[in-house]
Amino acid sequence: MTAHVSLESSKRPPAAPRRFELLIDGKWQQAMAGERLTRHSPAHGVAVSDYACGSSADAAAAVAAARRAFDDGPWPRMTASARARALLKVADIVERRLEELAVLEVLESGKPIAQARAEISGAADIWRYAATLARTLHGESYANLGDDMLGVVLREPIGVVAIITPWNFPFLILSQKLPFALAAGCTSVVKPSELTSGTSLVLGDILLQADIPPGVVNIVVGTGAEVGERLIRHPDVDMVSFTGSTAIGKHVMAAGSDTLKKVTAELGGKNPQIVFGDADLDAAADAAVFGIYFNAGECCNSSSRLLVAADIASAFVERVIAASKKVVVGDPLDDATKVGAIITPEHLAKITDYVEQATAAGAELRLGGRPLDTTTGQFMAPTVIDGVRPDMTIAREEVFGPVLSIMTFDNADEAIRVANDTNYGLSAGVWSGNFDNCMHLARGIKAGTVWLNTFMDGYAELPFGGYKQSGLGRELGKHAVEDFTETKTLQMHRGPRTNWWLR
Ligand code: NDP
Fold first, then answer.
1. Taking the CB of the first residue and of the last residue of the chain, which one, N or C, has fewer CB atoms within 10 A?
2. Same structural domain, 250 and 301
3. How many domains does the chain have?
4. pLDDT of 135-157, one tens digit each?
5. 413 & 479 share domain
6. Which burial class, exposed, middle or buried, applies to 161 when counting CB atoms under 10 A from its CB (0-12, 13-18, 19+)?
7. Does residue 437 form part of some domain?
8. Same domain, 14 and 137
9. What is the value of pTM for the model shown?
10. Residue whose CA is closest, atom 31 of ligand 1?
11. 262 and 276 housed in the same domain
């Protein structure tokens, strides 16, 4: 059995929800229509946040503020050194307010507190990394065009960027976008998921503390259908940086095409971990468990497909099941918890539906498969499904829950074929003691990230994004800031001009 679910943590959710307004033009404002929205903790069931809920009109006001700040304000015109100093100040304040941010993230998302702390700390590191890119961003010069001509390629900020984020890593994902946009000199309107908007709004407060000028970052809570739609279609928005599901990502691209916006998208994944018999099998089993239960499987990088060499499959699956039983599911405010709550009751129902579909299609449920019995909130048991075939829905669609599907393969080429047999291409893990084999798999798998004998590490220095329907563009890495720029070519002539009609 899975270790106990206890909601007896010494830390309790707050007695009253925290109140938030919208951040528009440097001021906290009520939603124009006066609407409000309450978020309940998915683990504790109590109201934890009370936000102003924006509408299309609030989104338009935020875009107008961002446009003014871009067209007339100091931010795009100041030196990169001054912008970098501001980003470094943000990082320092994020670290000072780490516990406040981490607890709020737990209360809204249901993720474990130890993990939330690590995410906030990692986010501060990304703000610092973006500050270095602000100062190293540069164009090109061409002195080889003849003595009378000099060519210069400028990198200019693209303009107003709409940033739309999902509910699973609210603060971290925003920090993979916003500091790079700011480093380039852009202004922004942020629309967080209305399920987990709290830490994005606290970031708004931190940006004010760090003296980021009014209108440079505006934050509008609201639904995708209302606020998101207005942003992706607004003619004064130059670019949309989106993270979310592949279905909505396609919609954002299509809607943005009306005004030919630049769209970057980080979307879903159906990521395989592939285990060969010559691997360190203890390490591989640990990574298999981490890869599927981290963030309760509500993770674009979740390794929801485990591909195991047929000759070791039976023993290896036993190891994975044994390790899965030791995973502590429980109160996310408790330091010992590894798996917290599921984001909403509707999402939990979707996860259990996938499990039922898999068993109906002939797969074998080896562990879990049902919600846990708790007095508050919604929790899913760590679940292992064996005997999955590549054509089953459970092997093809993103479950976004703690549900591991196990498949087998006979040789490396078959493993590559099965790994690539999906519309997604976000990430993959390979476990083998043979270097040649690792390289063969790494080159053959169509994914934006391949981990060899490790899984789901992340660094600000390394680009992240997807092949195929997992996305468009890359975040992080040294080119991340360039995504938020336009290229302008200057051709500068010196000396007398030869008349055109005389040439
Ligand atoms: P959704 O695609 O449902 O939503 C993402 C964001 O888009 C939310 O803020 C949502 O608003 C907004 N949105 C919804 N409809 C529209 C619209 N018509 N126009 C503009 N914006 C809209 O994803 P989830 O929030 O459910 O997140 C889970 C998904 O995100 C998974 O598929 C996961 O794989 C993916 N993801 C990808 C990552 C990556 O880096 N590749 C990282 C993390 C998640 P609201 O929901 O508030 O209405």
1. C
2. no
3. 2
4. 999 999 999 999 999 999 999 99
5. no
6. buried
7. yes
8. yes
9. 0.97
10. 245
11. no
